[in-house]
Task: structure prediction
Amino acid sequence: MSKTLVIVESPAKAKSIGKYLGRNFTVKASMGHVRDLPKSQFGVDIDQEFSPKYITIRGKGDIIKELRSAVKKSDRILLASDPDREGEAIAWHLTKLLDIDEQSPCRIEFNEITKNAIQQAVKNPRPIDQDRVNAQQARRILDRLVGYNLSPLLWRKVKKGLSAGRVQSVAVRLICDREDEIQAFIPEEYWTLMGKFVKSGKSPFEAKLHKYKNKKIEIPNQEMMDKILGDLKGASYQVATVSKKEKQRNPAAPFTTSSLQQEASRKLNFTSRKTMVVAQQLYEGLDLGKEGPAGLVTYIRTDSTRVSETASEEAKKFILDRFGPAYVPKQPRQTVAKGKVQDAHEAIRPTSIERDPENIKQYLTNDQYKLYKLIWSRFLASQMASAVMDTTSLDIAAGDYVFRATGSVIKFPGFMQVYIEGNDDGSKEEERLLPELSEGDKVEAKNLTPKQHFTQPPPRYTDATLVKILEEKGIGRPSTYAPIVDTIQKRGYVVRENKQFYPTELGIVVIDLLKNYFPDIINIEFTAEMEEKLDKVAEGDERWVGILKDFYQPFQETLENADEKIGKVQVADEVTDEKCELCGRNMVIKLGRYGKFLACPGFPDCRNTKPLLEPTGVGCPKCSGEMVLRRSKKGRKFYGCSRYPECDFVTWDVPTQEKCPQCGGMMVEKNSRGKEKRTECINEKCPGKEYKASEQTKKEAGAVSGKTAAKAGKKTPQRNRKKANPSG
Result:
């Protein structure tokens, strides 16, 4: 009986597929990539058609030795790396190292680790897809051309140790551009008027002033609001129109890589990297007790929402058994691909809908359970009947003024019985029931409540919204979103604070330099076009060497020109009045990985450094000191007393000049995600804990939100801790 060797990337994957193969199969793991371009050399021969010089990755020698030994003992070799370009490249590199004919039927792929999928793959091997390999090679070499040529320029002109990436730089630019918008934003005042109405014997309801003389009303200032309140004084109110409609709400499509990362960020507070690490574990397989190792979800790098007919039928049966026929849609759900979708794989879904998350929870870690439940619920909901909503709209007239109330109740929950998609602003949907009223009914206004607002700047990017904009702009592909987000933080160009991304001063300086001298490198459209060209290479419609030639010649000319024109760029080396206690020199502000700090300019003779304290102009509520902005060693922002360690008062909220009218305590500015900023008394025992901010504070809110030069942080801070360790 012939013996077959199957090579996959990981031991977990090997264990999962091994149980579906017979005794004549041996499954080994390559532990990911086995060859790559050298780290210490350029590794690309430009004069020889951009020929890459691959070397065995350090530490993989023993693995290759073991695989070569296994190859000699086998009659057939099957390379079962992941079903994408990276997986194809791994398989191709293995053919080179293990002396396997790449034109032979040595490559198998599967979208899920199930018995049927594995056995079908083994029956249908194929040669290596060289077009896919070339697309992966082209991306790798493009990144090497940019990184190895541009990074030394940044070392000479800005700071040693910097690096620039082709796709990552575009992501940093998006974050920097958004910061520019926020800093340039000027808040504009506007007002709203809410009325609380009631009809005898009915429950009260709220309505918002909507129209004046049949035109949508805008209230720019208090003067106009006062006029409106004067007009409505003593007014009578009656129901002008009642509109009732039945609306259907359809479920969201099953997950793609991008939408999974977005939803895991919204609902689970997972970073993009964490989402992909946990999802990979679910795909490769986990031990489910007596059932043994099993892959729980389909392949996790996909831009398709397509679902196989088999999976759709299994879901239909499950829905029928658990929820009843009303929850099964009349027609099977068909999703339409949007934009430039490769559609090579299915959507991300459970490999078996019968594996209820609750039934296998005991075998999973908490993170695995939460992500699996998210994927399972989203897929199940995507195959269910639409929800039906009863919506009601009431217009309440008072002369030329019209108030509008809207209500919505769930008539039939449909898919909402299982899953509701999250929102980027963190808001939750609530039912709102309005009383039964008829046109002409008189209602009484119990009170009218005017409220002042200020327009808000565009929000900073989060993991969810950054991945979303990358996908919308065509930057990167499903396999690259998480690495992009991870890399720009590791390089110190952006930091994440309270789930939002801020550019560091270093990031701003580098992006400004790239904008001026390498506009194509950070041009969004140019980068998206390059992704399309790589797609064409993978499809066999374009030559990979041609793409590299078209890119490299103008890039090389730009590089030489920039080297001559760019002078040394200084980054935030500002002299301060603070003396170095060791040598007496005036300390300077330097920029480190986690933001600004004070350093002695006498380096290397004097190596004294200390945290930079940025004054706020607000007195410490505990002593006679001043509140200053501090940063911990890991870059987290907090506010503490300038007299530390004599005074240990600390808060994570922004101190304001405003005093609490109830107790005279310090007011701090809080910023709840998806809501307007608000001020609150810091005194936990204050009788009026929340207090409406003054007009001046509100006007300053936009300006405060724009002061973000070098923020840093990795975790959402606790609120108003009385004690903290400023050293981080």
